[in-house]
């Protein structure tokens, strides 16, 4: 259900019945969880960003970037520095917006795994949703590696089985072949037509995604891959507030912890598990110097 300024939202005909925005609204209205917005601008921004996530996913699918494990990642050296861990670090002489666009423009020069793909899609979608100058202010220190991201994206997990177009889901493959660990799962974006895009597998429905992963299981395994009941989302409201800031806004923030785990295709939940381990270790050091 959608609430706007405390009142139940009524579709006003702002979007045509066959538009992506209308599909998203319908799914929100069917959701038992209440989606609450202070203003129409806030709701409209989320719809725009979700639509851009979908379009950025389709653009990646139509491009020529290839799937690769972290250790075999590849990028355009004119925009990014490839680290030993397989991450892409933004060059000092390059604008963040130009570097993100290049992944789509010169896609044949790039290879990365599916978690990194989601972060690229997120940045590309946000770039299309806010002022470019603001984007370059917010994301000056881009480093693409697995789920590592700037805190302003506000990435978080929600336990639910009601997915919305633009959500990121995880197809878990618990019995993956140890010789091909990058098929431990697939991060995928739910598209407006009910199919999913996962970098490495492509576009397909849930059954097709699971079938693709099942082909990569350990020999003799009877444990099927499955779709987890959780979604990963951006903080749409947080980003909506940024979209309304003046051009001269200066953002001072603490850089997120970077952890090179060397595991391709992990879920955001697993990435959080690793981060929490690091935070706990830091707290232990501070408590017992």
UniProtKB/TrEMBL annotation:
Q: What is this protein called?
A: Protein-glutamine gamma-glutamyltransferase
Query: Is the Protease keyword given for this protein?
Result: no
Q: Which GO biological process entries does UniProt record here?
A: sporulation resulting in formation of a cellular spore
Annotated GO molecular function terms are: protein-glutamine gamma-glutamyltransferase activity
- Keyword annotations of the record: Acyltransferase, Sporulation, Transferase
Q: Which organism is it from?
A: Oceanobacillus chungangensis
The cross-references to InterPro entries, in alphabetical order and at most eight, read: Gln_gamma-glutamylTfrase_bac
Keyword Metal-binding set for record: no
Q: Which HAMAP family match?
A: Tgl (MF_00727)
In terms of superkingdom, the source organism counts as: Bacteria
């Amino acid at each position: 259900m959608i609430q706007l300024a405390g009142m139940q939202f009524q579709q006003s005909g702002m979007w045509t019945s066959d538009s992506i925005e209308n599909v998203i609204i319908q799914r929100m209205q069917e959701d038992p969880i209440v989606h609450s917005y202070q203003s129409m601008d806030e709701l409209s921004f989320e719809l725009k960003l979700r639509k851009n996530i979908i379009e950025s996913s389709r653009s990646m699918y139509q491009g020529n970037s290839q799937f690769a494990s972290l250790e075999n990642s590849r990028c355009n050296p004119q925009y990014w520095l490839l680290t030993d861990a397989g991450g892409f670090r933004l060059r000092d002489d390059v604008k963040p917006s130009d570097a993100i666009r290049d992944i789509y423009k010169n896609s044949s020069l790039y290879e990365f795994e599916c978690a990194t793909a989601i972060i690229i899609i997120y940045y590309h979608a946000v770039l299309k949703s806010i002022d470019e100058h603001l984007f370059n202010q917010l994301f000056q220190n881009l480093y693409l590696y697995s789920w590592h991201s700037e805190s302003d994206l506000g990435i978080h997990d929600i336990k639910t089985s009601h997915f919305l177009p633009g959500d990121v889901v995880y197809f878990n493959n618990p019995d993956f072949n140890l010789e091909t660990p990058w098929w431990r799962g697939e991060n995928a974006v739910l598209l407006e037509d009910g199919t999913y895009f996962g970098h490495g597998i492509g576009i397909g429905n849930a059954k097709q995604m699971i079938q693709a992963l099942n082909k990569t299981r350990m020999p003799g395994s009877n444990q099927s891959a499955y779709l987890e009941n959780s979604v990963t989302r951006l903080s749409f409201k947080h980003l909506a507030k940024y979209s309304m800031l003046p051009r001269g806004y200066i953002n001072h923030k603490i850089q997120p912890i970077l952890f090179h785990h060397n595991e391709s295709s992990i879920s955001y939940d697993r990435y959080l598990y690793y981060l929490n381990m690091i935070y706990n270790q830091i707290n232990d050091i501070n408590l017992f110097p």
